[in-house]
Amino acid sequence: MMRDLHALLTPRHALGPLEIRRENLAFVTLPASNLRGFLTELRDTQGFSHLVLLTAVDWLEEGQFQLTYMMNNRARDLTLGVRVMLDRTTAQMDSIHDLWPTAATYQRELKEMFGITFPGSPRLDEEFILEGWTDLPPYRRDFDSLAYSQQTYAERPGRVTHDPREYMKSKLYPGG
Amino acid sequence: MSLREVLTPFSVWKRVLDAPVSIADPFSREASEHYRGFHKNDMETCIGCGTCEAICQNGAIDMVPVEGQNTEKGDSGLRPMIDYGRCCWCALCVDICMTGSLTMSNEYTWVDSDPDAFRFIPGLNEPWKDKQAGYKRENGRVLSGTTRSPMGELHANERIDNFNEICVGYTREEAILEADRCVECGLCVATCPAHMSIPDYIAAVRDQDYDRGLQLLYETNPFSEVCGRICTHKCETSCAAVHEGDAIAIRWLKRHIVDNVPLERRVELIGAPKPATGKSVAIIGAGPGGLTAAYDLAREGVKVTVYEALPKPGGMMRYGIPEYRLPYDALDRDIAVIEAMGVTIKCATVVGVDVQMEDLRQSHDAVILAIGLQMGRGTRIPGSEGAGVERAVDLLRRITAGDPTVPVPETAVVIGGGNVAFDIARSMARLQKIKYGRVGLTLTALEDRAHFLADKEELVEGDEEGVLILDSRGPQEVMRDPSGQVTGLRTWAVTSIFDAEGRFAPAYDESDEQIHQGALVIEAIGQMADTSLLGDALTEKLEWNRGRIKIDSEMRTSEPWLFAAGDAVKGPDVINAVADGHRAARTVMEAIAQGEVVQ
After folding, report:
1. Residue-wise pLDDT tens for chain A (176 aa)?
2. B119 assigned to some structural domain
3. Same structural domain for residues B165 and B260?
4. Which of B51, B56, B57 to mutate to test the interface with A (most CBs of A within 10 A)?
5. How close does chain A come to B310, measured CA to CA in Å?
6. Which of A156, A158, A169 sits opposite B190 (nearest CB)?
7. How big is the A-B interface in CB pairs under 8 Å?
8. Which of B75, B108, B143 is the last residue of a domain?
9. Could you tell me if B97 and B45 are in contact, meaning their C-beta atoms sit under 8 angstroms apart?
10. Does B416 lie in the same domain as B290?
11. Helix B263-270 with B210-220: angle, nearest 10 deg
């Protein structure tokens, strides 16, 4: 079923190869500029009416963000993960809040956690869960969680740690 | 406000008799099976590697000494202490734990008026210590890679008729993959006799900074090209990765660094030695112990002369270890760097013959004895005296020297199960293959296969090369025909090697007798030092310990001008000799500085 659908839609939307995970779960990647047209056709003619979730992955080394739109066809119990790759420096994508109102919430979250922007999406720049955040978006992989936590949170007094290598030296061969 | 809006709130009264949805006693409510609650740590499995501390993104973990946990090989004795003021229960520490000792219970309530109570060491006596439920790594999932990058090797067929090096070395890709598995805990450093900066040079491989890697190697070991090939690599037995996978290939990564830095660049990176101090030291023996001391002393501006009896420097590294494990040009490069530091090596110069100990004493500020164990021990079994029975170290020396009179019969038997036994067995097998087109070599050892003293790879490779390896066989007699020609070795099955007090006292099953055919029997059961070069007077004067020259922990003999290092006094391998060489050089430098060395 997924294969038929893939074969049918590939020419119009320049879809990449179909990655089948289970009988009713598959993933496909396509150019970001084709996403809205593809999702619209999935929703309006193929029965994929439900946006399950929208999430992102930071491929830091490749300089890209990956967005994954999980689309579900309830009647046929099929889920298709639709992926687009974005340039990490631009980090911008077309909004789909007009297709699924719930997408606005996902997009607001992605703006806050990854710094990916979706122009025109409602309340996009309002704080989502972080309050008064001024650092890099925390889900970006170049965000240094440890440094942030050390700068932000107080250390309880009296804490002492030991480097295993140096500690073993002091115990086993102090003379070197 | 409409009437409806006023009345609506009262509609909830219709629920007043329903069963409550909320939980009456929330404190005893069990969390879900995999809940990430308070930590647990199995103190016996934990090795104190500190990887949990390193990965914690909240800086919540300290590594602290814990009573009852000892610092020993492969275990720092430290244990994690977690500050619950900072922990966010992400469980990265559990996911990365190298032994699986750190887990989580599903306990999540803890009330205390003392805030310091929430800095705690899991695994001591917390109430949830024995609770089974809670977060654990699913299906034994391990985040760091568990499989070692395989080392490329010549196939047995390609190597049995020559002495070409078996291991081809890592490619950069293989080395980076392997280096990536290291968590840099540093537990290995204590196990390395020379305490090499293992995590740091592995990081240099990962960063592809071979210059830095080489400089790190030379801080602790001038024989890194040699050790990168033939080190006994005990460090790998202490590797944190060994608990859930293969140990990091520390030895191969060391070799990879040296392989990637040309000789001239090595000398350049190490830099020039300190200015000359006007002091001079004589070293007897150009093996790993002597030459390491020579290197260190030369770096400190001391004029060093090394006296070597054999035609070329290297000691057992050249005349003991076969070329297929350590090619001579690899050894030559390590020695060339040492010579580039200004060390003079006088080969084919026998102390006691060409030059006297007393002269060395007179003309130098100190003398270091690093003569190794050059003489093979004999089994003293019947028939072992006379032609047809050889000692392994003598034969290996002659093979290296290219001696055309090395006996190569179609069949031979080796007695011994250590690395030297395998070195001679596999060398002789190659010579047989070259001469006769087939291998006729039997190796007999007292130990059973699981307890051979040789490295595991020697057994694997010996098998592959067609050496017949017989375990638990005790030599009883070298068989000879009426003309005195050796025909084989008679052995009994070994029932035990040590007596109840742990002393060496092999016991045999005499009913299980075998005769292994061979026109040559090679004894490879141990070596001893040839100390005749000392001369009677000095031998008499020195203190001895069970046939070895007695030294203190800083390599001093009982004579203030004489120091000793290497296999002759300690042993048992190259890296220990290197460590001894460093220590001897340091002691000599201190002695010179304090003017202690009496002439």
Report:
1. 788 899 999 999 999 999 999 999 999 999 999 999 999 999 999 999 999 999 999 999 999 999 999 999 999 999 999 999 999 999 999 999 999 999 999 999 999 999 999 999 999 999 999 999 999 999 999 999 999 988 888 888 889 999 999 999 999 999 87
2. yes
3. yes
4. B57
5. 33
6. A169
7. 80
8. B143
9. no
10. no
11. 70
**Chain B nearest CA to A174, separation (Å):** 11
* Rounded Cα distance, B200 and B170, in Å: 18
Which residues of chain B have a CB within 8 Å of the CB of A139?
none
Residue of A nearest to B87 (CA): A149
H-type alpha helices, B70-171: 92-96, 156-159
> Do the domain assignments include residue A166?
no
Kindly state whether residues B444 and B338 are assigned to the same domain: no
Burial B476-503 (b: 16+ CB within 10 A, else e): bbbbbeeeeebbbbbbbbbeebeeeeee
- pTM check: above 0.80: yes
On whether any CB of chain A is under 8 Å from the CB of B82, the answer is: no
Residues 117-176 of A with CB under 8 A from B: 145-146, 149-150, 153, 155-156, 158-165, 167-169, 171-173, 176
Number of domains in chain B: 4
Judging contacts by C-beta atoms under 8 Å, the chain B residues touching residue A153 are: 58, 86
CATH value at residue B177: 1.10.1060.10
**Structural domains of chain A, count:** 1
**Domain termination site, one of B227, B254, B269:** B269
Q: Cβ distance A3 to A57 under 8 Å?
A: no
Residue B117 scores a pLDDT above 70: yes
User: Looking at CA atoms only, how far is residue B526 from chain A in angstroms?
Assistant: 29
Neighbouring CB atoms inside 10 A of B594's CB total: 8
Contacts of B85 in chain A (CB under 8 A): 156
Q: How far is A172 from chain B (nearest CA, A)?
A: 7
Q: Residue B119, CB half-sphere, CA atoms under 13 Å: how many?
A: 16
Q: List Cα–Cα distances, A91 to A17, A100, A112, A113, A139, in angstroms.
A: 24, 21, 12, 12, 13
Residue B598 in this model has a pLDDT that exceeds 80: no
CB contact under 8 Å between A164 and B195, yes or no, is: no
The parent domain of residue A132 ranges over: 2-154
CA atoms within 13 A on the CB side of B579: 22
Residue B2 lies in a domain: no
Q: Which domain holds residue B110?
A: 30-143
Cα gap B91→B497, rounded to integer Å = 49
Assigned domain for B225 exists:
yes
Q: Report the pLDDT value the prediction gives residue B303, as an integer from 0 to 100.
A: 97
Each residue of B458-491: pLDDT tens digit? Answer: 999 999 999 999 999 999 999 999 999 999 999 9
Distance from CA of B81 to the nearest CA of A (A): 9
- The CATH number that applies at residue A27 is 3.30.460.80
Test B57 with A146 for CB contact under 8 angstroms.
yes
Q: Flag if A167 and B58 touch (Cβ within 8 Å).
A: no
Q: Is residue B286 part of a domain?
A: yes
